[in-house]
Specification:
mainly alpha, Serine Threonine Protein Phosphatase 5, Tetratricopeptide repeat
């Protein structure tokens, strides 16, 4: 039995700057996803915990800790005061969240947008869980720092699904709300430096400009643009005609 994966890598080139992904059925009959990286590849399950493990018999560590919280509440008459996530707990949850992060990047590339939403929602639960129960603010930030990137990916996935029906305005509203949520996150954690440098904000703002350019215009919007263009070009005869058309449209 050879452990050398060179033949696989030789047949599947790594492309710098590109997310190179494929989905296939594994020898165990379950769907797998592979991500080509510079030094080899990452393989993960398409559903469940990406590495296929079931910690403490649960689908994920998050589910294990949620069951621990439930037991704690049962013992303390529904009260969760005193339940905490230690540094070790948060580190384990972070490592698990990274697995789901890799997968939602992959399934986004495969245009499986519902699965992107599935995995991002799952990681948001982790972030919220740690925010409420982690021992200190540093542990909270160790997970929350990934929220802007996750929110961007979620907005991208939801927006891509809406674009299938050509609902540009709904996508624009979605992106605008997503931008505000990311900005509010940085304001909440008093990180104006990250607010100004955020690649996630820059990416969504660029997409917003692209969407605005592609959005179909109403007759009024087309006339208003024609009027502005005519005035800018000092074509006053055309501007007068466009004004008349606008008045007729309004009437």
């Amino acid at each position: 039995m050879s452990f050398d994966i060179s033949p696989i890598l030789d047949d599947w080139d790594y492309e710098p700057g590109q997310v190179v992904v494929r989905r296939f059925i594994g020898n165990d009959g379950t769907e797998k996803i592979q991500l080509r990286v510079d030094l080899g590849l990452l393989q993960m399950n398409a559903s469940g915990r990406p590495d296929g493990k079931r910690p403490y018999g649960k689908e994920s560590l998050l589910e294990h800790y949620l069951s621990q919280l439930k037991k704690y509440r049962d013992i303390h008459n529904g009260d969760d005061k005193g339940f905490v996530l230690t540094a070790e707990d948060c580190a384990k949850l972070q490592q698990e969240a990274i697995q789901y992060h890799h997968r939602y990047i992959c399934v986004f590339q495969l245009e499986e947008f519902e699965n992107v939403i599935r995995d991002t929602e799952r990681n948001l639960k982790v972030f919220d869980f740690a925010k409420k129960y982690a021992q200190n603010d540093d542990l909270v930030w160790s997970l929350q720092q990934f929220r802007p990137q996750l929110l961007m990916m979620q907005v991208r996935a939801k927006g891509a699904m809406l674009l299938e029906s050509k609902d540009f305005q709904a996508v624009i509203d979605l992106v605008t709300a997503g931008l505000e949520e990311i900005r509010q996150f940085y304001r909440e954690y008093d990180r104006p430096d990250l607010l100004e440098q955020s690649g996630e904000i820059q990416s969504l703002e660029a997409w917003l400009v692209e969407l605005e350019a592609k959005r179909p215009r109403s007759p009024r919007e087309r006339l208003e643009k024609a009027l502005n263009d005519a005035v800018r070009n000092e074509d006053y005869e055309k501007a007068a005609k466009v004004r008349d058309a606008l008045r007729n449209l309004k009437s």
